[in-house]
Specification:
CATH superfamily: Syd protein
CATH class: Alpha Beta
CATH architecture: 3-Layer(aba) Sandwich
Radius of gyration: 17 Å
Number of strands: 10
Number of helices: 6
Structural class: alpha+beta
Strand order of the largest sheet: 5-6-7-8-9-10
Largest sheet: 6 strands, antiparallel
């Protein structure tokens, strides 16, 4: 059933994490207890986590707004949910562990000073990395902010790190909302494939 409102959309987005990634951590870097998935038995060397909706929204979101407001749907998700680094196949979303603030997410988003120097003046804000272990930043293009959302772009990282310039900028989604829906659709596809595989065993 298609989500009827943004709250249901974000619940479906978070649920997709379970379909697209294994959501595991090594025992020497366990997840916060509130994220621990105690219902799933895994190998002794790893533990599984799951995203959660927080009991109350976080405060101090201004620390994420270094060059302006971010897409409203992303801000709502960041305020209301806790999660760890997750590979959504479309992108690898930075972690936003349960807390009362955005310190961990802000640190991840703005961790690379070389990227910051090239991206922020042009109003590109990195919130994820490309899939397949690539360091290409996935960014909000706030220079084209329209109402409450903006295009999502992938930037080629090598020219930035080597020459401090952006040589390639690819729009991968017209909005963050479109990215969220694409992830949900991928999650549904992965779940259906899993059900078919299990049905053949």
């Amino acid at each position: 059933m298609k989500p009827r409102n943004d709250s249901e959309l974000l619940d479906a987005f978070a649920q997709s994490f379970l379909m697209l990634d294994e959501l595991i951590c090594p025992h020497d870097r366990p997840p916060p207890l509130v994220l621990l998935d105690a219902t799933t038995s895994v190998d002794w060397s790893i533990v599984r986590w799951h995203p959660i909706r927080l009991p109350a929204p976080r405060a101090c979101i201004d620390c994420l707004r270094r060059v302006g407001r971010l897409p409203q749907l992303f801000e709502s998700f960041a305020e209301s949910f806790g999660w760890l680094d997750v590979d959504l196949r479309i992108c690898r979303l930075f972690a936003n562990p349960p807390a009362t603030d955005f310190v961990d997410l802000s640190t991840a988003m703005f961790a690379d000073p070389v990227l910051n120097n090239a991206l922020l003046p042009l109003r590109f804000v990195r919130f994820a990395l490309a899939p397949d272990c690539c360091y290409d930043p996935i960014c909000f293009d706030l220079s084209n902010f329209d109402g409450d959302d903006c295009p999502i772009v992938r930037l080629e990282h090598e020219s930035i790190l080597r020459h401090d310039r952006i040589d390639k900028c690819e729009v991968i989604f017209d909005s963050f909302r479109d990215l969220v829906q694409a992830v949900i659709d991928l999650g549904h596809g992965a779940a259906n494939n899993r059900d078919k595989t299990n049905g053949c065993t």
